[in-house]
Amino acid sequence: MSDFAMPSLGADMESGTVVEWLVKPGAQVHKGDVIAVVETHKGAIEVEIFDEGVIEELLVAEGEEVPVGAVLARLTKAGEAGTPEVRAVEEVHPEPEPEPEREPEPSPEPFRPAPSERAKVSPAARRRAAERGIDADRLRGTGIDGSVTLADVEAASPGAASEEPRPRATKVKRGFDPVQMRKGIAAAMSRSKREIPHYYLTTTIDMSVAQVWLREYNAARDPDERLLPAVLTLRAAALALKEVPQLNGFWQEDAFAPSEAIHIGWAISLRGGGLIAPAIRDVDKLSIADLMRALKDVVARARSGGLRSSEMTDATFTITSLGERSAESVGGIIYPPQVGILGLGSIVERPWVIDGAVVPRPLATASLAADHRASDGHVGGQFLSTFARLMQEPPKP
Amino acid sequence: MTSGEMTPDAIRKLAIDALSDIAPDTDPATLRGDEDIREALDIDSMDFLNFVTALHKKTGVAIPEEDYPRLFTLDGVANYLGGK
Q: pTM value?
C-alpha cells in the first residue's frame, strides 16, 4: 500500500482543495496519470501520481481543503497482493502524515501536450455555452490548441445565426484567486530575499541577428507556425546552462544539487494581477518548433487553468522576460530552491558602436540574479556571456 | 466568402469574439474603434499571435508580420481585412 498525499506545488503552498477526482476506487493508475484537480492559490492544478497501482480508496471528498502532506488516497502498488474488488472501505485514516519533499523528476521526456480527461474550453466559450444551455465539454474544439472556442459554441447553438443579439460580456471568475495568489507570491519572494544572498550581473545584447532570423523564419509560415522571440531566449538559456551547469539545479541542505535535466520555469503574468512560472521540460532537447508549441501550451494552460503538478515543481532555473512595451531591464528574484533567474528587458532601438561607428541597433538588456551560496560572479558572468553569444547564433533553419 | 466581402461590422464581431477567447476576463465589446487593443486589454505578444492566428483561420488572409501594426485597433482590423 502507498499513500497519495496533497503535494506541495511550490515553496509557498500550505493547503489545497480537491475540486475533482478523475479516478474512482478500483482504477488502475500509472506514473504520470492526472488523478485529481486541486484548487490552489495558483488556480486549478491537475495533480499527477508518481506511483503505479490500483486506487484502493479516496480519503478526501471533493470540495474539501486539506494541508500539504494530508493523505488523499491509498493505492495498492503494482506487484503487491492487492485486492481492489474486496477493499476495506470501512477503514478510516484520520492522521495526515507529512510528505517528504518530492525530488524533481529526473527522467527527460519529449514534450507532449498534457492530456486531459476533460475537453479544453475557453472560459468565454464556457460562459456562452452556459447561457445557451449547451454542454461545452461535449463540443468538438477547433481552437488553436484543440480547445472549444466561442465560435464552436455559436455553431452548436440552436438557430445559431449571427444576427442574434449578443449578450454583453461580463466579468468571469478567473482560474485563480488573486488575493490568495498575492499571498503565495509574498511568501515565496519574502523567503527568497530573506534566505538567498543574491548577486546581480547585466549585459547588453544586439538583437539584430535574432530579429532578422525570426523575420525570415516567420515570413514563410502561417501564423500558427510562427515563432516568438521567447523561444530563442529559452533555447539560448538552456544551451548556456549546459555549458555553465553551476546555475541549473537547487540549493538543498546547505549545498548545491545540480540537475541533469534542464527544465526552465517561464514567468507568465496573469491578466488582473498574478504571476506563475511553470516549467517547460527539457528545453535543451526540443526543436525550435516543439519549443514554441510547448511555450504556447503552457501559457494557455497557465491562463485558463490546467497546469500539472509536476510543472509547478520541476523548474531547475527561471526566466522572466518583460516582453514588449515594458521596462529596459529587470533584476529578478530567485524562486527557491532554484539558484538563478535570467531577466530580459524590452528590445529598444539605441545607438551602438560597430567597427568604430555609431549605428542604431535593437538592443536588449539581459540580467542574471544568482544565489551567491551556490556560485560566484565569475560563473554568473560566464553564463551571461555564453547566453549573449548564443542569442546571436540562432539555430540553422 | 473572402473577408473583403464581409461588412465592417461582421469583421469587428469576428475580432471581438477572437479577443474574448484570448482574454476572457476582459470586455472587448467596449473597445473604441481607434483604441490600441494591446494596451486596452493588456495583450502580450503571445496573445497577439493567437489573435492573428484566429483572424487568419477565420478569413484565410495570410497576415504577414510586417502588417501586424495595422491590426492594433478594431478600425485597423476592419480596414485591413475588409480590403482583402
A: 0.75
Mutation for testing the A interface, residue in B1, B47, B57 having most A CBs under 10 Å:
B57
CA-nearest residue of chain A to B62?
Answer: A222
Q: Using DSSP, state whether B20 is helix, strand or coil.
A: helix
CA–CA separation, A320 vs A342, rounded Å? 6
Kindly list the residues of chain B whose beta carbon comes within 8 Å of any beta carbon in chain A: 10, 13, 17, 20-21, 23-29, 38-39, 41-42, 44-46, 49-50, 52-54, 56-58, 62-65
**Nearest Cα to Cα of residue A279 among A250, A322, A244, A245:** A250
pLDDT band at B75 (very low <50, low <70, confident <90, very high): very high
Instruction: Give the tens place of pLDDT for each residue, A209-224.
Output: 999 999 999 999 999 9
Q: Tell me how far apart the terminal alpha carbons of chain A are, to the nearest angstrom.
A: 51
Give residue B37's domain range: 3-82
Q: Do B45 and A230 touch (CB under 8 A)?
A: yes
Put simply, the answer to whether A325 touches B49 (Cβ < 8 Å) is: no
Set of cell numbers at residue A163 = 444576427
**Residues of chain B positioned with their CB less than 8 A from the CB of A166:** 13, 29
In whole angstroms, give the CA distance from residue A225 to residue A217.
10
Count of domains for chain B: 1
Give the pLDDT confidence of A32-88 residue by residue, as tens digits: 889 998 888 777 888 989 888 999 999 999 988 998 989 999 988 876 654 444 333
Give residue A184's pLDDT: 85
CATH number assigned to the domain comprising residue B68: 1.10.1200.10
Considering only the beta carbons, identify the residue of B29, B56, B58 that sits closest to A168. B29
CA distance to partner chain B, nearest, from residue A15 (Å):
26
Share of chain B above pLDDT 90, in %: 79
